[in-house]
Amino acid sequence: MLVLTCRIGDTVRIGDDLRMTVQSRLRNRVTVGVIAPAGVDLFFDNACLRPSVLPDGAWSYLFSMLAVRRYRVGDVEVCVWLPGDAVSLAADCDEYLHVGVIAPEPFQVSCEHPTPGIRSSDAHVQSRAAPALLWA
Question: Which among 24, 37, 71, 82 could bridge 44 via Cys, Cβ 3.0 to 4.6 Å?
């Protein structure tokens, strides 16, 4: 598992065509926006969410969830933690949260700030068969 520390408004890019943006946070609830290729389903609480279709054909999802919950997009599993919840060395700050990514094969993963040209991290996800905790 790869764990990234992101701020509200940051976008986590997974591979070439999967993006997750942390839209907002209110206490323990996080609103997440996901853009996936057409045909890639998003499962949350064992239910397949219904996507909106973007003009370019990609599927868009927007949902709210409690922190320390997981969802799955295609073969990629994503978990969101608040600082101090599951990551013991996390700073206690309302602007930050942690995003864990588990994938069956290596993917390029990066966390991008809304300001163009600033990138907080860039790493490869380890496979599910050999999980590793990496700090970005």
Answer: 71
